[in-house]
Specification:
The complex is a heterodimer of chains A (about 250) and B (about 280). Chain A is an alpha/beta fold and about 250 residues long. Chain A contains 8 helices and 10 strands. In chain A, the strands form 2 sheets. Chain A has a 6-stranded mixed β-sheet, sandwiched between helices. In chain A, α4 (about 110-120) crosses α5 (about 140-150) and α5 (about 140-150) runs parallel beside α6. Chain B has one domain (about 5-275): Rossmann fold, CATH 3.40.50.300. In chain B, α4 crosses α5, α4 (about 105-115) packs parallel to α7 and α5 (about 120-135) crosses α7 (about 155-165). Chains A and B meet through α6, α7 and α8 of A and α7, α8 and α9 of B. The structure holds adenosine-5'-triphosphate (2 copies) and magnesium ion (2 copies). The site of one magnesium ion has 4 residues of chain B, from α1. Chain A: Belongs to the ABC transporter superfamily.
Chain lengths: ~250, ~280
């Protein structure tokens, strides 16, 4: 299990300063939520921390190592990202076998067949799915394959960018149950972006509320139901979520 | 009162497919907000696309499909071009996919407007900025000049909504219009759509898998499973649903202050599909 620490992360694109100065810490084995205004920079935090984008200032450490000091291979084996869109994140002409075997080949791992089967079974899919293509699977099955791809190199940390927002509630329930079980079994550390505070309450111990590139407040999951946020925007967001769910 | 839209016994079969993606769907829409919910692949978007006649190569059958005075089964495509995007519009599910990647967001909205409404470029630009502001885009001038890959998920969704509302349509079909938005912005956008129904008397079809959304923002809800409507409810009675499929969907939702245990997942039954095969 590895902790994640983000210190003074800042990035400017063109004339716009997208993140002025973001810092937060995630404990080893914790599920940490990122919520907040649309366009506030949640996906940008994950893109920077995973080195998908590399032109930023500050420091991101996983365990005792900076993500900048890791080579690509090491980084892939330390952290993986699951993207929001189960349709766009898989190549339409690649079979599940291709999707899963490529990272194994790149990293020169042996027992490929066994590892692929194990990754599929981890996400609750039979090994027959190795020969399927994206159009032969439902949205939820595709998202499970995307998670299997993230798992296959046995990383320590998973970044999840709205992993269920494109899915209906029944498939969402399957994926959330899966992510919760995997965290228990494998000791993953998660950072999870979501718009749904019910999902955050269900999955995360703590979460950060973002607005205009800044973290305005870090809260405990239990602060949601009683709306114990102190900062005005965080209060507004939680209040709106409670009204939306009609629990108040 | 005459319905704005009347659909009877709609069926859709995609080219090359043996199965009907949509079967026996009937509903009337007045000046109201009708929700369509159901799991992924149940046929929700297909119903929307059939109404806008956006299904080239698919077999579309119906006993009736009328929009105001127009018989949608019958009118030629050349007239449909004047109707689609003007008197009826559809806010599509995937904004990034629906926008032209090499044209600035604002220009796309302004140009779409000018294909239906006579206006100078300057006026179209002003109206676009106004609309971007109305959908709660913080810096409309900046966002006007961004390319689709430079906007966040939620901003792309609002760009699409702004584009569809520019021409004052009578019928709006919104396919997952707010799934990428945070709740405060989502409520704002829903209020805008709501205002259109109340003030201008438009008909709104809201396709969504968000049960809270349809409960709070629709008048009636169709619940679809495997291409068919399995239940129709007043939105406020959603929690009293009697169909096991609808009940299963409701139970699968995580809740604020819930017990955080594993969520119940749907056990699907073949008997939910009428006349299967
Ligand atoms: N390539 C780019 N060039 C310029 N600006 C960009 C680029 N990519 C993103 N941005 C800007 O960065 C800001 C943050 O975007 P980001 O995608 O991180 O938001 P987000 O919090 O994930 O929002 P959402 O919830 O809508 O997905 C937005 O204002 C967006 O316009
Ligand atoms: N172009 C197409 N060709 C063949 N089959 C299609 C096509 N588009 C959709 N389908 C199939 O038609 C069925 C209904 O799809 P539709 O997109 O209407 O579902 P939906 O209810 O909108 O799902 P979602 O919630 O995932 O958007 C699905 O089984 C889908 O695989
Ligand atoms: Mg995002
Ligand atoms: Mg759809």
């Amino acid at each position: 299990m590895k902790p994640v620490s983000v210190k003074n992360l800042s990035i400017t694109l063109g004339a716009a300063q997208i993140l002025p100065d973001v810092s937060f810490d995630v404990a080893a084995g914790e599920c940490f939520g990122l919520v907040g205004e649309s366009g506030s920079g949640k996906s940008t935090v994950l893109r920077c921390a995973s080195m998908l984008w590399s032109i930023w200032d500050g420091e991101v450490r996983i365990g005792d190592q900076s993500v900048r000091d890791m080579d690509v291979m090491e980084r892939c084996r330390t952290l993986q990202m699951v993207f929001q869109d189960p349709y766009g994140s898989l190549h339409p002409r690649q079979s599940v076998r291709t999707v899963l075997s490529e990272p194994l080949a790149i990293h020169g791992l042996d027992n490929r067949q066994d590892r692929m089967k194990a990754a599929l079974s981890d996400v609750g899919l039979p090994s027959e799915f190795l020969d399927r293509f994206p159009h032969q699977m439902s949205g939820g099955q595709r998202q499970r394959v995307a998670i299997a791809r993230a798992l296959i190199l046995e990383p320590d940390v998973l970044f999840l960018d709205e992993p269920t927002s494109a899915l209906d509630v029944s498939v969402q329930a399957e994926i959330l149950n899966l992510l919760a079980r995997l965290r228990q079994e494998k000791g993953f550390t998660y950072i999870m972006v979501s718009h749904d505070l019910a999902v955050v309450d269900h999955m995360c111990e703590r979460f950060a509320v973002m607005q205009s590139g800044r973290i305005v407040e870090v809260l405990d999951r239990d602060d949601i139901v009683a709306n114990r946020a102190k900062e005005p925007y965080a209060r507004e967001l939680i209040g709106a979520s409670l009204a939306y769910e009609q629990v108040v | 009162m005459e319905p704005i839209l009347s659909v009877k016994n709609l069926g859709v079969r995609y080219g090359g497919s043996a199965e009907w993606a949509v079967r026996g769907v009937s509903f009337d829409l007045g000046r109201e907000r009708l929700g369509i919910v159901g799991e992924s692949g149940s046929g929700k978007s297909t119903v929307g696309r059939a109404i806008l006649r956006l299904l080239p190569g698919a077999e579309v059958t119906a006993d009736r499909m009328r929009f105001e005075e127009l018989d949608l089964l019958d009118i030629p495509e050349r007239r449909m071009l004047k109707v689609r995007g003007a008197r009826m519009s559809m806010i599509l599910q995937d904004p990034k996919f629906s926008l032209n990647p090499i044209e600035r967001c604002g220009d796309q909205i302004a140009e779409a407007y000018r294909t239906h409404v006579r206006a100078t470029k300057r006026k179209a630009r002003a109206k676009t900025l106004e609309m971007l502001e109305a959908v709660q885009i913080r810096e409309p001038e900046r966002v006007y000049d961004l390319y689709p890959h430079e906007v966040s998920g939620g901003m792309g969704q609002r760009v699409m909504i702004a584009m569809m509302l520019m021409t004052d349509p009578d019928l709006v079909i919104a396919d997952e219009p707010t799934s990428a938005l945070d709740v405060t912005v989502r409520l704002e956008v829903l209020r805008i759509l709501d205002g259109l129904v109340r003030e201008r008397g438009i008909g709104l079809v809201m396709i969504s898998h968000d049960l809270n959304l349809v409960r709070n923002f629709c008048d009636r809800v169709l619940i679809m499973y495997a291409g068919q409507v399995v239940e129709v409810l007043d939105a406020r009675d959603l929690d009293q649903a009697t169909h096991p499929y609808t009940q299963g969907l409701i139970a699968a939702q995580p809740r604020i202050g819930g017990d955080r245990g594993p969520l119940p997942v749907l056990q699907r039954r073949d008997s939910w599909v009428e006349g299967a095969a």
